[in-house]
Amino acid sequence: MKMTQLNPLTVAVQMDPMEGIKIAGDSTFHIMLAGQARGHRLYHYLATDLTYRDGRVLAKARPVNVQKVEGDHFAFGEPEMLDLGRDVDVVLMRQDPPFDLSYITATHLLERVQEETLVVNDPASVRNAPEKLFVLDYARFMPPTMITRDLAEVRSFLAQHGEIVVKPLYGNGGVAVFHVGKNGANLSSLVEIFKASWVEPFMVQAFIPGVAQGDKRIVLIDGEVAGAVNRIPGAGEIRSNLAVGGSAAKTVLTDREREICDAMGPELKARGLLFVGIDVIGGEWLTEINVTSPTGIVSIDAFDGTDTGGMIWDAIDARLAARAAA
Asked: What is the pTM of this model?
């Protein structure tokens, strides 16, 4: 196994285009700033830049320097072909969903470098833990939930629970999340649209009125709570995602939320899911476990005066030290 000098590290960040990120709230950018401050050498590449050749996984990547200056937040060097197993200490898999076959293919390729390079989050665990399916392992903490493509089943669920929320199984950022009232107006049309738009079943949950007071994002680093932020829906919305107009507010954890985190923390750590964001409504109802590209740490640090990016690098250092000692 490759012996790794913990600092400085060579880090390849698989993410979305640098040009399009919003640095004021982007968690990946926040992590990159924290890594650069520690002297780590950063590279940027897209998932489409991956190549498998002669038994090696390569990425056409560009060295990048980042700075917290809106509109001038990055500078690229000349592209290099990196062997992700030999040339890199850490790969951060941070591109946003959709969690589709392209995303899954990237996890399969990155899994092939795991014996040589630390990939965060663990690619096989990411593949096996999509947000709205992995959470079913903790159904005791969830609102009543159904996954289906059957209109009759959805109607029955609505009759049982009065109001429901319908959302795509592999969606993100609050896109295509619908609230259906007691009268079920347009339910059949909505189900038709979902079935025409996605080949997968969709998720249906009992509506939790407490969402009006916020949907709490809790961040766990290597299984331990790092902080939380409450995301409050905008006027006329049930969606609290910051990407669709929600606002952030300082918060603390309830006893129930601590119970949820304690229940899943050891499993997250065992799976190599080092940076995870979970969503809890009303202080008690778990709705998602985000492992692909969780967000929220910029707001948490702003409210709590913490350094969540630094905590992530500390956890990475601990993982690398454990691998070197093995």
From this structure: 0.92
